Amino acid sequence: MLMKTTILSLPAEEYVNPGTRACSGCGLGIAYRIALKALGRNTILVVPPSCLTVLQGLYPIAATQLPCLNVTFASTAAASTGMLAALRALKKQDIKVVAWAGDGGTSDIGLQALSGAAERGDDFLFICYDNEGYMNTGVQRSGTTPKGAITANTPIKGKFQQKKDVPAIMAAHNLSYVATCSAAFPLDLYDKVRKAVDLPGVKYLHIQIPCPPGWGFEPRQAVKVGKLAVETGLFELYEVEHSVLRLTGASRKIADKRALVPVVDYFNAQGRFKLLDAAQIEEIQGQINRRWSGSFETAEDTDEA
Asked: Any idea what the CATH number is for the domain that residue 239 is in?
């Protein structure tokens, strides 16, 4: 079992150069920096159009120090499969292939290729950074936009549909590893990336990424908003390893203590939920309470991240 990482044991080497084109307070900057520390230099990234392509910058100047293949929106997982084949032909299978896509390029446009790669058992890590909308193109709704959230194309009453549960979809493929993470809990994220890369087949990580302009909060509040998503029980931190689900980090502690922050605190911290009324918030709170009242085991856990 891997030792839990602390702030003192986190590797000092940086793979993201200072000064990126990301928005102020972008949670992706935190998650990207931490995950690359876990992956190390012997890694090739495969990235579709997304906020990450903005963060990395335009050729010939790039914020990341790792090689990156930019691909079309729908082809991230398929291109990762092709990269694996190329590395096998070159006898360089020690190089890790990591796909990194937004929620649009994962839950919507890229889901077919991802499901196909999972069914084939291709050996790469797929990371979805979920800022819950097409933020790079003007804050349109995606499959993972939460119910009630205001976006550019759900401006009157917010989104009507529930958020698509992509980690559950991927867990249904019987992968060796599926996990949820948050940019607000970087050590939990680091340990999950480090564990995932050494397991066989497709591995899937789903990271919640607070987005100041898209969600409607001040950039300095990004970590606070991300923590509230977990502390309210609206977003759980867990891992599914060989089909066994286990809560991790802050979510493990919440399950043990049965102490949830009221979800209204999370909604009030963002402008995108301003159309939710008291009855809708009460309904969502009830859904959270029912899920946490008996859905999760409270077996002893050693997570401290």
From this structure: 3.40.50.970
